Amino acid sequence: MRPGRLPLGRCVVLLLVAAVGAVLTTGLRDGAAPPTGGPSPAPAPRLAGSTLDGGRFDLAEARGHVVVVNVFASWCGPCRDELPLLVDAARRWAPDGLRVVGLNLRDGPEAVRALLAETGADDLTVVPDPDGTRGVEWGVRGVPETFVVDRDGRIVARHQGVVDRQWLDRWVTPLVEAA
Amino acid sequence: MSRRRLFGALAVAALLAATAVGLLRSSAPDADPVREVARDLRCPACQGESVADSTSPIAAAMRQAVADQLAQGRSPAQIRRWFADRYGDEVLAGAPADGMSLLLWAVPAVALLGAGGAAIRTLRPRRRRRAGAPRRSPAAAGTAPVTRVPAARRVWWASGAGIVALVVTVAVAAERLDGGGPPAAPADPVAVTLQLARDLEQRQRYDAAAELYRDALRDHPDDGVQLRLGFALLRAGDAAGAERTVRDVLTRSPDSPDGLLVLGLAQRRTRPADAPVTLRRFLTVAPHHPAAAEITRLLDR
């Protein structure tokens, strides 16, 4: 071997390692990228059923309201963190026609009630989704996931992961102000 | 045949047999139709796992959605399209491969070819080297002993045997490594609805509880649930509704103690003359029922 030159075998190994690294990095980044925002509004799937407090909720009857649908579960730590923000948003924009609905994915009523009590979200309208099929109908990829539905029943934004005040301001403010 | 050749032939035979077992297993149709469809769907919350294999809650929910749709008579192709409409084409396991996916196939293939080439170079007979002076790099010449080449060959043989053993083990034991049976059943929505309803009854929200019992009965007709509905309606003040509900159960089980109890109590409001007869029958059928003492007091008044 001449000094300063790598043998062919080592070059191939190095290239392979680099290629595997590139594949893994790209794959992991693609998989972790949460869908957010909304390129084109699509009609929201059906969402109707008994609520945790024994009432009924039907998204079709909420036309004319802006609806934030938050998919959550008591076994999901980040969901716990964002509930107070959603409750605050519900209170802040209720006079402007905003409704916040929790779609409770694969959970039990006691656990959810405890979570709602802990986070001060007792007033939240919660539709239980014990087998998760309602969430699947919405194309939910994980919890938490949040959808903004406009007054015409179209999904205008979605976000996988914890939402923050900026995200809500960006997507909800124009809709409630358009009333 | 030398021992080395025999070992080589055995290794190749084991690899071929393991490949055949693996191919047979992966191409054999699945007995469970839900799993068969779920196998062709990628879990959107996982890395490289199918909906059939993933234990994530979303994959479990997707399996339930597949089961529901199969029960409605939808075809696997229609179900796959339904999922693609919601999750995009990338949810389909057979989606066209893009550049990165091709690289994912190409890298192991190139690595195998490279390793195979290097193994052949090391393992082939080196008559020329044995005949003449060994050609070694100047760096290695001073330190490496004469046994360097046989040591490298041993490493290759050991690695080869290790890979063969790994492939054979995976091919044979994959079934057991799979998690030891079908994935856990998803949460039973009827059970959760019933739990919610009982919860509401305890909070004396009988109307709402009755509504939930009706929901549960739509999915899962059951006399026990229907009797709970009867009790809830009675407590909500709908005696006629309670009577209708339990009469339905009593046509199937004329001696149902709870059926007779609710009917008798409902009749005290709808047809007071018939109530004592029904309640006495209740006491005859179930003298040790928790409500028996209270009913006896009621009749003695």
Detailed description of the structure:
Chain A is α+β, with helices and mostly antiparallel strands and 179 residues long. Chain A has helices at residues 8-32, 77-93, 109-118, 133-137, 165-177; strands at residues 36-37, 42-43, 48-50, 56-58, 66-72, 98-105, 125-129, 145-149, 154-160. In chain A, strands 1, 2, 5, 6, 7, 8 and 9 form a seven-stranded mixed sheet that branches. In chain A, strands 3-4 form a two-stranded antiparallel ribbon. In chain A, β8 (145-149) and β9 (154-160) form a beta hairpin. Chain A is elongated and about 75 Å long. Chain B is mainly alpha-helical and 301 residues long. In chain B, 71% of the residues lie in helices and 0% in strands. The longest helix of chain B is centred in the middle third of the chain and has 30 residues, at 148-177. The chains are: A alpha+beta (179), B mainly alpha (301).
Mean pLDDT figure of chain B: 81
N-C termini distance of chain A: 77 Å
Distinct helical segment count of chain B: 15
Span between termini of chain B: 104 Å
Strand percentage of chain A, roughly?
A: 15-25%
Strand content of chain B: under 5%
Strand segment count of chain A: 9
- How do the helices and strands follow one another from N- to C-terminus of chain B? HHHHHHHHHHHHHHH
* Helix-strand string of chain A: HEEEEEHEHEHEEH
Report the biggest beta sheet of chain A as strand number plus sense, adding barrel if it closes: 7 strands, mixed
> What gross morphology of chain B would you assign?
elongated
Low-confidence stretches of chain A: 30-34
Overall radius of gyration of chain B? 36 Å
Tell the overall outline of chain A.
elongated
Mean pLDDT of chain A: 86
> Helicity range of the residues of chain A?
25-40%
Which protein chains are joined by the largest interface, and how many residues does each one contribute?
A-B, 42 and 43 residues
Radius of gyration of chain A: 22 Å
